Amino acid sequence: MANYVIKEMPTGMGNGSEGKAFPKMQVYTEFDYNKVVELIHTYSPAFSQATVRGVLDTLAVVMKSYLPMGHTMKIDNLGVFSLSLEFVDNEAYSTNPQATQVLASKKKYHHVRAKGVNFKVDKKLVDDINQENTFERTTGNPISPSPYSLEERLQRALNHISKHGFITLQEYANLNGLSYSTASRELAKLVLDSHSGIKANGAGSHKVWVGR
Fold first, then answer.
1. Closest alpha carbon to 31 in 174, 134, 147
2. Beta bridge partners of 81
3. What is the 3-state secondary structure (H, E, C) of 19-77?
């Protein structure tokens, strides 16, 4: 289960889209590098966290080396990475008056630098996400309290466990509109309650919650 909120296009854009409603993902947690490594290891425990780090770090080095050489990089089921560029002459004109005469004598658009890295997602990744998830509207912002009561959150978790066999911490957080830390504390309390119907199984990155 994924949550979304309804937003409206801001005014003043001049393209006729002002006030048009669109769905936006409700984001509760930004995973840092360590958490990403942990999650990859959880899904593929045959690869140690050190191995995962080595692969990710090396991928960054390879991109840094080959994208500026005019290559793009496609990773199946993920997407294509390419470099985007921008002109920098205008910055010199506006911030350095002495450079104005020098730049004026040079060819227009002489200086270029990397602006960022473009990413075009693989359609299969989007299709897989749609096949494996449903999206439910919620209200508020990422730090708002859950729209569900504790009893409702527990029942939603039990329904998820009944369907999938277990629930992870992040799934519990997303399912009930909670932050990662709040979901962790709440699950700890539910495990201590013998009437909750939930118990913990495993430890560390392999910890999940199952039915009693």
1. 174
2. 73, 119
3. CCEEEEECCCCCCCHHHHHHHHHHHCCCCCHHHHHHHHHHHHHHHHHHHHHCCCEEECC
For 155-203, the pLDDT digits (tens) are: 999 999 999 999 999 899 888 888 877 888 899 999 999 899 999 998 8
Q: Which of 211, 202, 183, 198 is nearest to 45 (CA)?
A: 202
The pairing of strands 2-8 and 135-137 is parallel
Which residue range is the domain that position 186 belongs to?
Answer: 140-211
Q: Is 65 left (phi over 0), alpha (psi -120 to 50) or beta?
A: alpha
Domains: count for the chain: 2
Q: What is the pLDDT of residues 32-79, one digit of tens each?
A: 898 899 889 988 999 999 999 999 999 999 999 999 999 999 999 999
Joined tokens for residue 85: 């560029």
Is residue 18 included in any domain, yes or no? no
The answer to whether residue 188 sits within a structural domain is: yes
